[in-house]
Amino acid sequence: MRQCIEACLACHRICMETLTYCLGMGGKYAEARHLRLLMDCAEICQTSANFMLRGSELHSRTCFACSEVCGRCAESCAQMGEDVVMNACADMCTQCSDLCWKMGGGVMSQTPNPEAAQRAADLPA
Known about the structure:
By secondary structure, the protein is mostly helical. It is 76% helix and 0% strand. The protein has five helices and no strands. The protein has helices at residues 2-25, 32-53, 59-78, 84-103, 114-122. Pfam families: Csp. It comes from Myxococcus xanthus (strain DK1622).
């Protein structure tokens, strides 16, 4: 767990630094989708670290979400080409995604939601 916490905190930091870098670079670096992913990644990493630090029984759920967001952020950063800052962010996001995947158990169990199921059943075919 300690290794995952440290990865989440490092990923939060690098995503925030990369966000600032991207804003300064402009162009494709500052596209809204990419900036949102960096912000989402930083936020979920901070949240996941906090859940683990306080021993929350729900930490596996935040870790699962963190793994998914980090994976998407890594892909987005890697698409920027041969940029040392973007590659460093992609590498850290990939590492965090892998550790959070293990911490989250690799699968997100779905608790049945009867209200959502009824709304879905009421939709026209």
